């Protein structure tokens, strides 16, 4: 069986020091194999207890039924705060609810139709860039990062990636992505608020440069809004949206926080999923040909074409199952609980792992295999409802989930319409978790014109 690559598991028992070292290098291979079968697993450290939860009923309790009782963990936010500030990704409680009331309307229902032309143009631009690389072996993650960043800037600020500031943000973000470990010291140690965080110097500097560029874009847009000359894109919609309860709008700094997470979430996650989808097509040529045939429907910019990309959507969904861009989410227990006959104290860390949940041996048929047809089976549909959370779930579900499920299949189809991708047997990528699930040494594919 042609199983997609999966990181090796660590030994079942290791010292805390060894675990921290492994975790800092790669969160995925730092975990023991038993997590692919466990409903719940407890991890003890001298500073706190953490519990990985794989049972769908427990995930439902934490994310859907009682989300206010399980806020996002402050520990995990430590590493991202220099870039994301007080963004909706890191906040809790009333602050988070206020931010979502302002942001959510920009992504509702018919708004996807309005952003589709910008996505279409980004897909066309991606195919055009690849034209010059036909006949070569290409590092495809770099190309999908470029395409995903282009989508974000076109839909958010009506700017193509070639725009000077957009390109500067993209280039700087690549530096940040590689310098930022998924685990900061603050995630392991209960440091007091006043104590300085030990970020790498280049990480902090890179975050500051990104925020300065985004601040310039946001201020420029605010001026356009005041002058009545702003384009009707996502940035304008969000910056002019008043909180229906308080009448307040985002000020410039708050908007920069939100733009930073839109770029991180919308660019990093889409780039990761697209790269893995193309790799899976390269290693499953029969599926690649089916998608290429389906993609002949892509002729003119019309949102209705998305209803014809059914296979591409299933392939993209299966990619998100095997390689969820955000592999783990951490919540904090705000009051004593009892889960699966265990007492879980207040302050414990609850880890919800799409990576393990999506490959759980007691939930999925052929959990490590690539099988897009599972989404038409009864088991697949049930697992999608209960154990498929690439965008989280409940009130904190990713605002851009619908956006991503249009962007991903569209760009995947557009590339495969014109190009064939072929895997390199001597360059099998191994998944690792930086900010998202990426390959350890890139994803190298031979690119040829159809």
Automatic annotation (TrEMBL):
Entry keyword annotation includes Metal-binding: yes
InterPro entries the record matches: Cyt_P450 (IPR001128), Cyt_P450_E_grp-I (IPR002401), Cyt_P450_sf (IPR036396), Cytochrome_P450_Monoox (IPR050196)
Highest taxon above the source species: Bacteria
Keywords from the UniProt entry: Heme, Iron, Metal-binding, Monooxygenase, Oxidoreductase
Entry-linked Pfam families: p450
Family: Belongs to the cytochrome P450 family.
This protein's name: Cytochrome P450 family protein
């Amino acid at each position: 069986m042609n199983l997609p690559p999966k990181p090796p598991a660590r030994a079942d028992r290791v010292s805390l020091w060894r675990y921290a070292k492994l975790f800092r290098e790669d969160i995925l291979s730092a975990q023991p194999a038993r997590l692919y079968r466990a409903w719940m697993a407890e991890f003890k450290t001298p500073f706190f207890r953490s519990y990985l939860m794989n049972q769908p009923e427990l995930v439902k309790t934490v994310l859907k039924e009682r989300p206010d009782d399980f806020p996002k963990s402050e520990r995990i936010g430590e590493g991202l705060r220099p870039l994301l500030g007080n963004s909706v990704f890191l906040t809790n409680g009333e602050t988070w609810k206020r931010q979502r009331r302002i942001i959510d309307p920009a992504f509702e229902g018919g708004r996807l139709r309005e952003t589709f032309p910008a996505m279409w143009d980004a897909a066309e631009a991606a195919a055009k860039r690849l034209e010059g690389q036909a006949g070569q072996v290409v590092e495809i993650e770099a190309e999908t990062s470029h395409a995903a960043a282009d989508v974000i800037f076109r839909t958010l600020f009506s700017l193509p990636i070639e725009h000077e500031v957009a390109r500067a943000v993209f280039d700087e973000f690549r530096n940040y992505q590689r310098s930022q470990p998924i685990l900061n010291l603050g995630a392991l140690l209960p440091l007091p608020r006043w104590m300085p965080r030990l970020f790498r110097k280049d990480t902090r500097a890179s975050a500051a440069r990104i925020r300065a560029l985004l601040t310039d874009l946001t201020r420029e847009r605010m001026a356009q809004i005041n002058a009545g000359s702003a384009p009707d894109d996502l940035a304008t919609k969000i910056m002019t949206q008043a909180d229906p309860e308080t009448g307040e709008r985002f000020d410039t700094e708050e908007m920069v926080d939100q733009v930073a997470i839109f770029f991180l979430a919308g660019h990093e996650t889409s780039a990761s999923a697209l790269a893995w989808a193309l790799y899976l097509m390269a290693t499953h040529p029969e599926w690649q040909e089916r998608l290429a045939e389906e993609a002949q429907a892509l002729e003119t910019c019309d949102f209705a074409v998305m209803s014809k990309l059914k296979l591409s959507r299933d392939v993209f969904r299966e990619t998100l199952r095997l390689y969820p861009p955000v592999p783990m989410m951490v919540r904090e227990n705000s009051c004593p609980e009892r889960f699966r006959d265990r007492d879980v104290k207040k302050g414990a860390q609850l880890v919800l792992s799409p990576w393990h949940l999506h490959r759980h041996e007691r939930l999925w048929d052929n959990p490590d295999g690539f099988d897009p047809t599972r989404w038409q089976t009864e088991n697949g549909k049930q697992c999608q409802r209960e154990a498929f959370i690439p965008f989280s779930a409940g009130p904190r579900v990713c605002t851009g989930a619908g956006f991503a499920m249009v962007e991903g299949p569209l760009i995947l189809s557009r590339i495969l319409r014109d190009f064939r991708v072929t895997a390199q047997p001597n360059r099998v990528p191994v998944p690792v978790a930086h900010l998202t699930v990426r390959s350890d040494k890139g994803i190298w594919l031979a690119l040829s014109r159809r």
